[in-house]
Here is the input.
Amino acid sequence: MSHPVVIIGSGLAGYNVARELRKLDAAVPLVVVSRDHAGFYSKPMLSNALAGKKTAATLVMKTADKMAAELNAQVLAHAAVARMDTATQTVHLSNGDTLRYRDLVLALGADPIRLPLEGNAADTVLSVNDLDDFARFAEALDTGANGQPVQRVAILGGGLIGCEFANDLLARGIAPTVLDLADRALGRLLPPEGSAYLQGKLEALGAQFRFGVAANAVNRSASGSGLVVTLSDGSELETDLVLSAIGLKPRTALAAKAGLKVNRGVVVDQTLQTSAPHVFAVGDLAEVAGLNLPGLNLPFVMPIMQQARALAATLAGTPTKVAYPAMPVVVKTPACPTVVCPPASGAAGQWLVTEVDEGLEARFVAEGSGQLLGFALQGKATSQRQALAGQVPATLSA
Ligand SMILES: Cc1cc2nc3c(=O)[nH]c(=O)nc-3n(C[C@H](O)[C@H](O)[C@H](O)COP(=O)(O)OP(=O)(O)OC[C@H]3O[C@@H](n4cnc5c(N)ncnc54)[C@H](O)[C@@H]3O)c2cc1C
Here is the structure.
């Protein structure tokens, strides 16, 4: 019997590759290895779980055992990979076990970026990037302010995740303060008018925004009842809890140690193969490169679904390139329904913004040709999503 296809990681990337592979090949031995519980959950739900009154336990849709049965796979939970040897096609677990592979799929995800904060409470700063993080966050909200539910939360980062958590905290009756060094919310995804529209909707519900400032330190307050965040402009903000949402960094260390080519993410070609034969990378970890670096490192669900289908076909014997159609992202801010389909970075063009009834429609059009290269839709304009997505050129053609 041949060695198995081994997938490291039980997030959306790892499990979607496994599911797609099983559709094409019922027989190949399959092993999913994960350092976490290996239960299946939808990570995007972490930033609207409070409104939905979900807990870390109820967010799990299927346990590791159920996934193993469904996939006809061996699922090794709480099994961290310490190193891999691409010459002998072997994965070494930190408990000393080894696994040989026919093909290896790296679906290791990304780590939250940590700000180098000073202060005696810097270690209390939380970020939410998986179920265990969410459990800690939910517990801190319940009992974080000296055993009492917290009233005030400072969110570091006014990007997609920061704004989603701000909205979700509002749903729980907590007024968040969002801090960002940039001068507006979702600045990389929205035109200035769109940022202002979103900010206005969240402010109307009680959120506050402070732009152009970074957090330098987090200390316990003199009274001991809360936290004090010292900002880069010298001012201070009193709060009960600090949530950091300033971005993610692909977990490239294992791949780098094994000698694989690494840039921002683990570099793969369009068939998702790394620089080593029989080793592939997907999800938040992967940087899909063409001829040039940087390639595309897109930490969203739709690219993962595209990757999973292409890689499954490759693993089942038909080498297949991943293609990305235009992939709009829904920003989960119910206070201001928002869909973004940002233009490729560096695209030459301009935003054309139209106010519509209870919404905003922003089109990013190419200089000269007027070709639609991206868009942002808010409020009632989100109904235009399908129509506009069909006009935007593919992000990556096969
Ligand atoms: C709060 C939040 C909200 C989001 N909302 C949206 C949204 O609305 N729409 C959207 O498109 N995207 C959203 N995203 C992004 C999307 O959820 C991610 O792109 C996707 O879930 C990443 O999946 P992944 O499998 O690549 O990584 P992960 O889910 O992080 O999985 C990584 C896996 O690798 C395992 N692992 C890591 N290191 C090791 C090791 N050494 N040994 C063994 N196992 C290891 C981990 O245990 C884990 O199982 C959101 C992200 C967050 C954090």
The longest strand covers residues 349-356. Residues 8-14, 33-36, 43-44, 46-47, 80-81, 107-109, 128-129, 161, 251, 254, 283-285, 299-302, 329-330, 332 surround flavin-adenine dinucleotide (CB under 6 Å). The chain has a mean pLDDT of 96.
